Amino acid sequence: MKKVVIIGAGNVATHLAVALQKNGFAILQVFSRTEASAKKLAELLQTTFTTDLNHIDRQADLYFYCVSDHILGDIIDRFNHTEGLHIHTAGSIPATIFSQKRTHYGVLYPLQTFSKQKELDFRTVPLFIEANNEQNKATIEEIASLISDKVYCINSDERIKLHVSAVFACNFSNHLYHIASELLSESHLPFDLLMPLVEETVQKLKSLSPYEAQTGPAVRNDFNVLNKHLQSLANDPKKHDLYKLLSESIIQTHSDKSNT
Amino acid sequence: MKKVVIIGAGNVATHLAVALQKNGFAILQVFSRTEASAKKLAELLQTTFTTDLNHIDRQADLYFYCVSDHILGDIIDRFNHTEGLHIHTAGSIPATIFSQKRTHYGVLYPLQTFSKQKELDFRTVPLFIEANNEQNKATIEEIASLISDKVYCINSDERIKLHVSAVFACNFSNHLYHIASELLSESHLPFDLLMPLVEETVQKLKSLSPYEAQTGPAVRNDFNVLNKHLQSLANDPKKHDLYKLLSESIIQTHSDKSNT
Q: pLDDT digits over B118-136, tens only?
């Protein structure tokens, strides 16, 4: 049975630790700088925790780093331990962040939007892995395959593109829903009204590509409607500029294709 | 039994006509300038069709205009018939487009993204209605309630805002999926990989507002990741500018709120 230390106690740490434990891994310890978070996750896993990097258990086989990108480097430096396999979970950080400090290392990047309060079937989460050599890659692949049905090997450059694409598809589309909800509230209409439309937009992607599924005034080159909409957003420069740039991008995307 | 003429033979015309027929309305005729489209929809409804505005049946009680916004005015002008109740289905055109040409008129705007090839339960489609007087409004409300469970009365100004919000939530989010699919294909990864993420992003909206559900580097003010992502898009100005503007909008949205 592999012994695991979880470094971090946020959304990714929580979902990953639970999935590992369910599949027979022994979670030795949770580390977080924030005592309340460390304690909460340790209680959920019925294990121990520490808030001191010097007290991290050195007997583990696997160290998973599930912390914010901007503190990862610092934690790797200050937790000075070269044994075991060290795996980070960040989309936009190369595996080589470990290269000067560890012998065995790699990446396991889960492509999903996690919320602590919302349960999620980890088996459906695509995992993207990388390692510093073939043996470590085989080990990480084996671990990943135990907790998810979808495991892919990609390098750090591909992973950053994947992360950017996820930002567009998830973070940015969610922001568009927020803008829509603001516009609706100006007419005293609830966001719920848009849910059938939002869900159908996603359902369509099961039978059509996003290119084929595109609808709306921009793809129809309906400048009459586009101008009316821009006019209605004139007193809200942020929404006006986003409407303009997104419409131009749709028009350009679809004219490019028809010209080729 | 109310007699109906359907003007237009596109996605909205098809789904609306089928829903009306299912609920006991007699579809007398389909008009479309394109013979193939008119014929196809007429065959589906087992009714007659015409491509000549002068041959539209003048015995109908209801005329539904399901045509592109930019030709609606011209069709109203050229189909010179004042009897019956005339209803357009456009999000961004005021009811008053009929005012000089018809006695009884209104709007029935279905908020959904329709594809001819994809069946859809019309009862779940929110319908937004308006009319030139209370009596016509009551008639349109009665018709709408027969074919949908969600009927709302809003005026033309509110409807245009609703349409703009639908463009953000549906058309623009779909374009972001397209951008994501292009980025993935650069790494030879299929768009399918993003589907669990895209679906979970929408599922979250059932328990959280889009504001609460926001995740990603921009809402965390993670400029390290934002700059890496912008750098990775440097050779694609369109995607770069969209990434920048959307991230700035998320940062601004969430800083505004924390300051108030």
A: 778 899 999 999 999 999 9
Handedness of CA A20, A26, A30, A31 (dihedral sign): negative
Distance CA(B181)–CA(B191), nearest Å, equals: 5
Contacts of A217 in chain B (CB under 8 A): 69, 92, 167, 171
How many interface pairs between A and B have CB atoms less than 8 angstroms apart?
311
Phi, psi (5° rounding) for residue B61? -85, -35
CA distance A189 to A9: 38
Which 3-state string (H, E, C) describes B7-68?
ECCCHHHHHHHHHHHHCCCEEEEEECCCHHHHHHHHHHHCCEEECCHHHCCCCCCEEEECCC
B181–chain A Cβ distance below 8 A for any pair: yes
* Buried-state track A135-157, b at ≥16 Cβ within 10 A, e below 16: ebeebbbebbebbbebbbebebe
Q: Looking at beta carbons, which residues of chain B come within 8 Å of A91?
A: 225
- Read off the pTM: 0.88
Chain A residue closest in CA terms to B202: A199
DSSP string computed for A55-87: GS-S--SEEEE-S-HHHHHHHHHHS---SSEEE
Nearest-5° Cα angle at B70, B65 to B75: 45
Contact B13, B6 (CB under 8 A): yes
Closest-CA residue of A relative to B199 is A202
The pLDDT, as a whole number, for residue B119 is: 75
B175 reaches A (C-beta below 8 A):
yes
Judge if ipTM > 0.90: no
Sign of CA dihedral B211, B217, B221, B226: negative
Burial class (CB in 10 A: 0-12, 13-18, 19+), A235: exposed
- Neighbour-count burial for B83-107, b at 16+ CB within 10 Å, e otherwise: ebbbbbbbbbbbbebbeeebebbbb
Confidence of residue B187 (pLDDT cuts 50, 70, 90): confident
Angle subtended by helix axes A223-232 and B156-166, to nearest 10: 100
Distance CA A201, CA A217 (A): 15
pLDDT tens, B23-40?
999 999 999 999 999 999
With beta carbons less than 8 A apart as the criterion, state whether B179 and B243 touch.
no
Distance CA A189, CA B206 (A): 16
Report the residue from A152, A164, A200 with minimal CB separation from B113. A200
